[in-house]
Amino acid sequence: MFKELPIKQIYFLPIAGIILLLLGYQLAFKHTLEALQINSTLTEKLTQSVAPGYQPDYLERKNNNLAHLLEIYKADTALLRSNIINTVATIAESEHVKLTGVPVQDVSFRADHFIIEKLEFEGDFFSLLKLSDKLQAAKGIGMVRSENWKKVADRSHNGEVKKLILSVYLEIVK
Where does residue 62 rank: exposed (0-12), middle (13-18), buried (19+ CB within 10 A)? Predict the structure, then answer.
């Protein structure tokens, strides 16, 4: 069959090699080279844009979470003291706890970005514990920064009466 062709047999090997090379390029190497070109253009575009760690959706979620947390700490500064006292007194009354002290605001409790308000309550342990839980969950009065539990002996006319006092420090963002 090959003997009847008008081409010399010596040229069959180089022609077959060229045909195999073209087939190999079309079937395998072409797609690989296209993928390398796409990779290089995308890498170039990525380096020209902002930093690769920039993720707008992540930043938006983070901003929303921080705004939500800030809303918990925030309170109206114009009517701050009366609003907080009214809200806290209502919560204390529902738990059968007595609001015994709202000291005059101390200058050391004020800063540029926040105010610390101190409130004192008197009652039994479980009622004060429930009050503490409700104060931590309440919105619009700030966050409970710290609590101080004291057991005080009241020496009145007919003997010694022990009282439990809870001092709560609320932090409010201005």
Answer: exposed
